[in-house]
Amino acid sequence: MIGSGDILYSKGKNDECYTPAYGVRPILEYIPPGKIIWCPFDTENSWFVRLISRQNPVIHSHIVDGKDFYTYEPEQWDIIISNPPFTNKRLIFERALLFHKPFALLMTNTWLNDAAPKRLFMDRDLQLLMFDKRIAFDNRNKITFSSSYYCWDFLPKQIVMKGLDK
Q1: Which residues pair with 104 in a beta bridge?
Q2: Do the Cβ atoms of 31 and 57 come closer than 8 Å?
């Protein structure tokens, strides 16, 4: 029998989920002109880097290039936008909040049921960009979970609902 922990929590074996272009497009309209975007979990081929760089300067980094999010920070950047690994969610959001700069990180909606976001955003305004459909990540054969952009100091209001157009 499979326990709930096996279903809800990744053990890190399949943590690389590539966001398709239609999962990146909805965030583009909220990026202020001229702001430098740091995509800390992305290679130059990610849709985040490819689409955002059409309208804003982008710095990308990835652990495979020796730029670990927990130890690396570019010299100059304004906003973090990316799809981080779904393991170590709490640590990722803790570090993002330590910068005191806006961010938009794509994360599974089930994380809202966890104690970590409640604690992390107790005295901060969590903002959510939510969708009418689930995103089919490029390396998956099926859609297994819904996700939203978890944001801080980024969206015009606390909850924004958008349609996803493939």
Answers
A1: 81, 151
A2: no
Domains contained in the chain, number: 1
Q: What percent of the chain has pLDDT over 70?
A: 86
* Three-class SS of 51-85: HHCCCCCEEECCHHHCCCCCCCCCCCCCEEEECCC
Domain CATH number, residue 140: 3.40.50.150
6: helix, coil or strand?
helix
Q: What is the pTM of this model?
A: 0.88
Taking a C-beta distance cutoff of 8 angstroms, is the pair 97, 124 a contact?
Answer: yes
Residue 90, domain member (yes or no): yes
Say if 27 falls within a structural domain.
Answer: yes
pLDDT, tens digit (0-9, with 9 covering 90-100), for 13-68:
455 678 999 999 999 999 999 999 999 999 999 999 999 999 999 999 999 888 99
Give domain status of residue 89, yes or no.
yes
121 domain residue, yes or no? yes
